[in-house]
Amino acid sequence: MPRLRMAVIGVGHLGKEHARILAGLPEVELVGVADVTFEQAQAVAGRLGCRAFGHHQPLLDLCDAAVLAVPTTQHYAVAREFLVRGIPLLVEKPLASSLDQAEQLVEIAQRQRVILQVGHIERFNPAVEELQRYRFQPKFVECERLGPFTGRSTDTGVVLDLMIHDLDLLLCLVQAPLRSVEALGVALFGGHEDIANARLHFANGCVANITASRASPSARRTMRIWSPEGYASVDFAKRQLTLIQPSEALRQLSRDPSKLNPVSRALLKDDLFGRYLQVRERDCNGGSDQLTAELKHFLQCIQNGTRPRVNGEDAWKAMALATQIIESIRSHRWEGHAAGATGASQLPAPQGTFFPPAAGNRAA
Length: 364
Known about the structure:
Layout: E1 4-9, H1 15-23, E2 28-34, H2 38-48, E3 51-53, E4 65-68, H3 75-84, E5 89-92, H4 99-112, E6 116-119, H5 126-131, E7 140-146, H6 158-174, E8 178-186, E9 195-202, E10 207-213, E11 220-227, E12 230-235, E13 240-246, H7 248-252, H8 262-270, E14 277-283, H9 290-304, H10 312-331, H11 357-363
Parallel strand pairs: 1-2, 1-4, 2-3, 4-5, 5-6, 7-10
Antiparallel strand pairs: 7-11, 8-9, 9-10, 11-12, 12-13, 13-14
Helix pairs in contact: 3-4, 4-10, 6-10
């Protein structure tokens, strides 16, 4: 079987990793990489032994499939050219910079009957894959996705940049219509929101609290889920899953500890984790990295004509939820009335400082 001719459009921070992995897959021929910074394309192509281009258009006639990793604001224009040609495409998240553009790309892919996969890479996190082996009903979900400022993806806010990972996972896990959204956010560097929190209510009674920041002193990516079946915690960075469920002994125990006799109360205290709450830790670090798994899945979908794990419709749903959150952030009234500060770029005037500026400078 001939190798699949592939191209990578945009070989910056993430695109160059796509190109590196594809160049090492035996079933792939990396025919070229393109970047508006031609020197960057040349550097990547030189390392990988393929052709470099300063524009994506020549690759339309050279490739069988492509990966798109350009800035979000360029997703629609570039992706559209590949999809109308019937070329399978993996687009980095988010699918587009607006919901209307995302919908148009989904419609083109459907009309052309071409595979459109979107790079919601946490779906390929082995801890998430392990979690989805279990049957459970999420009723409260808490997500934190915090990281330092990198200077990348400033063409979008933190909702489309980081939070959208958790929105996609949440929609996948909850499987229920959204009932209401309440959100707020702050723009620290000007323009888009850099810190955001959203409270989501679903029709099946599930409530989710989601926080994202790209101005945090340390990185943390976690999801915690409470359900009638038990509790689950995912550490995305460590690729670890913790599961806790009530034992039969706890289910049969009185629900009011004050009514227990001293012996039973002491047993409950000393044996809470183990006898009464069963704990299972899953280290999911075996196997390939997520980006390689995502790319191999894309190739399998092309070869077999199967639906991607995250297709255009899934990405559109995550974007639709992200759009509602952004709209809620923009309309949030910090002082409770329309005349006060509103949205991510306005805050009430400060009444003081936590510490004198000189002390802050010394601490820095």
